[in-house]
Design a protein that fits this description.
With 249 residues, the chain is α/β, with parallel strands linked by helices. The protein is 42% helix and 16% strand. A seven-stranded parallel beta sheet has the order 3-2-1-4-5-6-9, sandwiched between helices. A two-stranded parallel ribbon has the order 7-8. The protein binds NADPH dihydro-nicotinamide-adenine-dinucleotide phosphate and 2-hydroxyethylsulfonic acid (8X3). 2-hydroxyethylsulfonic acid binds next to loops.
Length: 249
Amino acid sequence: MSKTVLITGATSGFGAAAARRFAGAGWKVIATGRRAARLQPLMDEFGADTVHAAVFDIRDTAAMEAALAALPAGFRDIDLLVNNAGLAQGTAAAQHASLEDWRTMIDTNITALVTLTHRLLPQLIERRGAIINISSTAAIHPYPGGNAYGGTKAFVSQFSLGLRADLHGTGVRVTAIEPGMAETEFTLVRTHGNQAASDQLYKGANPMTAQDIAEQIFWVATLPPHLNINRLELMPVSQSFAGFQVARG
Ligand code: NDP
Ligand code: 8X3
């Protein structure tokens, strides 16, 4: 019998590529996001028995509950939760950053993620399922302007490890995937719609692709059930680390 995966943020980037990867491999996919029109091609391609679109703002708990309550019978037994929906907003230094941007990141990347996880944990335990959380290299490696975004992803990585500890003995697997630079709509969103800035960032950098990350998500999900990847950090070859900075008085 085919397994069921719920992927948040499946309208774009990693989530869209992952939805296509899992559906193509015969999984039932619950694809979520706010932009319904983005999910239609996936449904057209794979059919309503394979892909179910659940359209809601992940920060809206009532809408999330309604979407879960409205799942068709064939999609109710969720084996895998991919917490992917998320965003960065702004690159300004903390002292110049927008508090509204910070709150949007916290509400989306942390509060919505823990709310959905908490809601699905009982059935994931019952089904000896799995959780894959999309964190970031920003969880571990700070950079100027990363402030609240990095903080939210540090939460995601540490929450994932904490879940592992609490779910000890249940058979539920938990993984935090921590990608570096990948070309998606991420920078377009981060810059509040500046396509030129997004193009400039990725130009000549040979970044990772959404498909690269989808393959990692699928790989983690389909490992033998006795294996757990705790954290998986990956970058394009073109990206590495820079040293500490020193302010001289
Ligand atoms: P995209 O902007 O391409 O995709 C983000 C997805 O999140 C969209 O499907 C969007 O759906 C969804 N989303 C955002 N806010 C909400 C919301 N309030 N309600 C519902 N869905 C929401 O970016 P990526 O694919 O790159 O990002 C996916 C994840 O990967 C994020 O968590 C990001 O932080 C992380 N990441 C990205 C990296 C990169 O370099 N690209 C590197 C490391 C981590 P919609 O707008 O339709 O609601
Ligand atoms: C996205 C990677 O380096 O832009 O999480 O923060 S980075």
